[in-house]
Amino acid sequence: LSHKQIECVEKMEQRYSPESQLKRERWAQSYKADHRETALIVARYYRTTSYFRDLASKILLEEDFVPTEKQFNAIAKNKYAKKAIATATEPPAFPVGSLCKVRANHNLVSNRALHDQIGLVMDNHPIGLNASSTLLVNGVQVKLEDRCLKAAAKKKKK
């Protein structure tokens, strides 16, 4: 056997050693107990992108699927995944029932009639990197990202 072939055989022996198999079993148990919810949040985010699409689909569609520890670290421990996890787990900036104001200078608001209008938050959508809310503005429901909104000014007491 060549030197490279010997290295490959040693690598395969190490991969299927009893210690490695035990390590994979422990990972599967800890994944189901501790990491599944995080993986679901990140998988929902990555289904909307072109990255990790196959892995995200398996996590969402197959309940018994357990990604390897390397796959989990790749999909859940990068800066984009951390932001998606934070968006999904933190309380919304504008809770349901609160008043907020549409920013006057924000370019994402295509309808200029909405600029500087006060709206009532009807629903929150924490999917993706940018949280969004459904507002009731002048009797019309509008879905806007939270970065297009600001807190409504409170009336001053006289």
Question: What does this 3D model show about the protein?
Answer:
Helix content is about 45%, strand content about 15%. By secondary structure, it is an alpha+beta fold. Helix 2 crosses helix 3. The longest helix is centred in the N-terminal third of the chain and has 29 residues, at about 20-45.
Task: Give the arrangement of secondary structure elements.
Blueprint lengths: L2 H13 L2 H29 L6 H9 L7 H8 L2 H11 L9 E4 L15 E8 L6 E6 L2 E6 L3 E3 L7
Antiparallel strand pairs: 1-2, 1-5, 2-3, 3-4
Quick structural overview:
44% of the residues lie in helices and 17% in strands. It is α+β, with helices and mostly antiparallel strands and 158 residues long.
